[in-house]
Design goal:
The structure holds 2 protein chains of 2 kinds.
Chain A lengths: L5 H10 L4 H14 L6 E4 L1 H17 L10 E5 L26 H8 L3 E6 L26 H9 L6 H4 L8 H8 L5 E6 L5 H7 L2 E4 L19 E6 L2 H11 L29 E5 L9 H16 L3 E5 L4 H19 L18 H12 L2 H14 L1 H27 L4 E5 L8 H4 L4 H8 L4 H6 L3 E8 L5 E7 L5 H15 L7 H14 L6
Parallel strand pairs in A: 2-3, 2-4, 7-8, 7-9
Antiparallel strand pairs in A: 1-3, 4-6, 5-6, 5-10, 9-11, 10-11
Helix pairs in contact in A: 2-3, 2-19, 11-13, 11-14
Chain B lengths: L26 H22 L7 E11 L38 H13 L3 E2 L2 E2 L2 E4 L9 E4 L6 E12 L5 E16 L3 E5 L4 E5 L6 E11 L2 H18 L11 E10 L9 E6 L2 H20 L8 E5 L4 E4 L12 E2 L6 E2 L18 H6 L5 H12 L3 H9 L3 H11 L4 H18 L11 H12 L5 H13 L5 H8 L7 H14 L1 H8 L5 H12 L6 H14 L7
Parallel strand pairs in B: 12-13
Antiparallel strand pairs in B: 1-10, 1-11, 2-6, 3-16, 4-5, 4-15, 6-7, 7-10, 8-9, 11-12, 13-14
EC number (chain A): 6.3.5.7
Function (chain A): Allows the formation of correctly charged Gln-tRNA(Gln) through the transamidation of misacylated Glu-tRNA(Gln) in the mitochondria. The reaction takes place in the presence of glutamine and ATP through an activated gamma-phospho-Glu-tRNA(Gln).
Organism (chain A): Gekko japonicus (Schlegel's Japanese gecko)
Amino acid sequence: MLRASLREISAALKEGQVSPVELCQKYLALIKATKFLNAYISVTEDIALKQAEASEKRYRKGQRLGDLDGIPVAVKDNFSTMGIETTCASNMLKGYIPPYNATVVQKLLDQGAILVGKTNLDEFAMGSGSTDGVFGPVKNPWSYSQQYREKCMRNSSTSNEELSWLITGGSSGGSAAAVSSFTCFAALGSDTGGSTRNPASLCGVVGLKPTYGLISRHGLIPLVNSMDVPGILTRCVDDSATMLGVLGGHDPKDSTTVQDPFHPFQIPNITDTSQLCIGIPKEYNAPGMSSETLAVWSKAAGLFEKAGAKVVEVSLPHTCYSIVCYHVLCAAEVASNMARFDGLEYGHRSSADKSTEALYAATRREGFNDVVRGRILSGNYFLLKQNYETYFIKAQKVRRLIVEDFAKVFSSGVDVLLTPTTLSSAVPYVEFIKEDNRTRSTQDDLFTQAANMAGLPAINVPAALSERSLPIGLQFIGRAFCELQLLTVAKWFEEQVQFPVIQLQDIMDQVDAVSQEEKSASFP
Amino acid sequence: MAASAIGCSRRWFRAGNFNFGNVAEPRCWKSLVLASTFFRSASKTAGKQNRDVPWAAVVGLEIHAQISSNSKLFSGSQVQFAAPPNSLVSFFDASLPGTLPVLNRRCVEAAVTTGLALNCTINKKSLFDRKHYFYADLQAGYQITQHRLPIAVNGSLPYSLCTGKNQNELVSKTVRVKQIQLEQDSGKSLHDDTGHQTLIDLNRAGVGLMEVVMEPDMCCGKEAAAAVRELQLILQALGSSQANMAEGQLRVDANISVHHPGQPYGVRTEVKNINSARFLAKAIDYEIQRQINELESGGTILNETRAFDYKLGCTIAMRDKEGKQDYRFMPEPNLPPLILYDAKSLPTHTSHLQVVNIDQLQEQLPDLPSVKRAKLVERYGIQPQHSFTLLNEDGLIEFFETVIAATQMNPKKVIGWILKDVLGYLKQYNVMVEESPISPLLLAELLNLLESGMISSSAAKQVLEIMWNGEGKSPTLIVKEKKLELIRDQNELEHICQAVMDGHQKEVEAIKKGNKKVLNKLIGEVQRETRGRSDPVSVKQILEKQLLLQPTKKNP
């Protein structure tokens, strides 16, 4: 039951096979048992239980609010949650309790979803490891999977747990770890350059970044407003469609959401694969890609080909400029967005009180980590009058070229692009921190940020386990606002590859044992 | 428009030889007084000092007009003057992270209407930008404004200037309007120097502003003040801004430089936040004179920001931090381009509530001040400068027209009573038109008494004075009580005239010798004798008749 998909558990709740309170308690117990993963910054136990009780009442009266009623979900800690601390994993916002809900959070609550906690991330979502937050790094649940541990045992050099635990990827690592370790059925992430798809890939879950403008950003504490999209992390593609159905649509509070009505959909089961055209962008065969990832990628292409789909090599010629351009635009918007954190209205305030300027400087120095401050500094540099043309305007022009690259490919008849999500599978933390955040982000966002630059929908689907039994994910990029097509392809692929379930038996048993003792729940 | 049409003939000269060194010191008030006296004798002084090359000043204005709207530019918070501090602050206004701007349609319409009234081209597509600087009352660390592509451009503002000895000559001028941009207002800081703290009020933060940028087509404070006044009247007529300077709804920054005619423009300074109509001309003229003095004493002008100190009456350089800085402009990513439509481009399937139609707003434009003035001149036959005065005072047109409707007196005569007498009282006692103790209907009643020959004009003035000080008594009652009716009894009048003549033999003699002017003195004496109750025309006739009858004294 714990490993069920969102759809399955929704059906079980409806049938009365499980009650919302039981389910919530079970999940809260699992969160406790997996505390060492550091996936959550705050666990909203009391609130969750109250919500679960309310949900149970609704079920008893037959007044279910929607498909998500009674289902535990987690939310990345950069979405504003009314009455619940929202930190962005930063000293700057420690203790900050928003007085309002992000639109996406409100939509989940309106459906009766149970909020079990706020998940960990890189400070202000700036990073690709979920290692650079003030609450410490998130550990990849696969580090503790039987699949991986067995491989480690055979290799004595990595049998030391301290040395072998893996990063989740980021910046939505907490959400990915939470979904992967069965502590929630779905989680919200955010995706600016790959922050949902990257950890989804490394944690072996489905990570969807919808089209820019399809889901409201109101209440999402911004990284790069022109690229940020709330992301959806689930255990299967069907579940991401369910979540999208709840979250999508115009929001009067976000002027960048499209006015056109959004129609929730269920993914059709069978696709006529012979009508399908899959594009393989040749520029994505980049140096640094692991041979395993390359092999999984080409195997996947072969899979489509075998099924009768047309698989064509395509070119996105400006891909190589994309990451640099992304960094310039990202830093510029970061510099601007972070300007509001001055210690006056909310958040951290330094005790330095010599002058207002001294207060600003000390507050910002104490509140932000080096990564954030580095981006603020470079962003302000790019925006200086003398540099604006050379950096910002140029980057915007390159962005336009990248958008056109995609447009050309899609107008040539390609339905969906197939690419790797990351260069390789998850690396151990000790390896990861050898490089600085910037270098890491450059490598890790390589395949993902272009979709943000172009505003296109993209999804990570777990494809295979690596030699070390770690997940390798592939990315599908679709046409703008063509989520139905994108998810249909993704679901077909998901069914073909039958990605293995993570084996966390020790942890699960532990929780089961506890609940058996308590005799509080009986799962079929 | 040809730039030459905007030229200014005013020439400036050095004001004097006093030290402007430390302008922050109180003695600079004295300097200003001296300066204004030197304006008049300037050419003489300059000539003597062999500095007869005149100076020309160039003045450009940036005017922030607060949009009159129920809610703020990008949030649903109410807009209200003098509400309790921080009582009108939405989450967006407080810059809570994750909040996003949502453009207020009413503010867009106000800017479009203003642009149309100022003969601007309305941009069908305009963009929003962020302007960054750290200040305690700028909550987000940036202001959302229109830097790259503003909502309206290339307009013009015709205005008139009263010149001449009695300020009764009208000169028409035009200032080009470079652009109008929509932007957010900031909050307010209250510096508590003793407590070493700054208090912030965010009520004003995010209120919609129209920044009207005027080209440097003006040459002195008076022109700038006249242009600002005209803009103010236009905004008020449109209802796009209440444009009340005292409430900060209209704030003026002036760019000022001086140069010798024929030479390139000088380095300019910016005088910020001139928030008083009274001091607008003064602040600009002060700065012009300061620059001239500076240059003539061998100094240089810095491209700096200065503030006008009302108490000291001079401009003072602001600290660097408040002055020039790199604003690091960036496109506002949370607002899509602002698209406006006209009748042709209007999308058919969209609700009219979601689009702004320029043509529709054009059709709905009310009469602008210039049109109102022309209509007044045409309808009532009054002088053009009188139409300016009528428009300049809030409510005076209504007052005038109410009087006209209720009196038989010719409007040309009525205007004199209103502009000279009533307005005189109002100005003298600093009373608003609508609070005038003399109501238009009572004034009309008084003018009717005058017109029908019930009272004389001098009696009418007496009644008016009583009305100004009185308790709302009707003029008819006042006339009755004070017995101010004209003396209709011909015998009585003749009797009085005779008595006056008897008492003024010298004057009578003078008249008889041919000095007809002295007759007026006698008429005046009769008026005094009758406390204004005699009709001067009748008195004149009686006096003339009696003078003829009276035997001339023989000279010894």
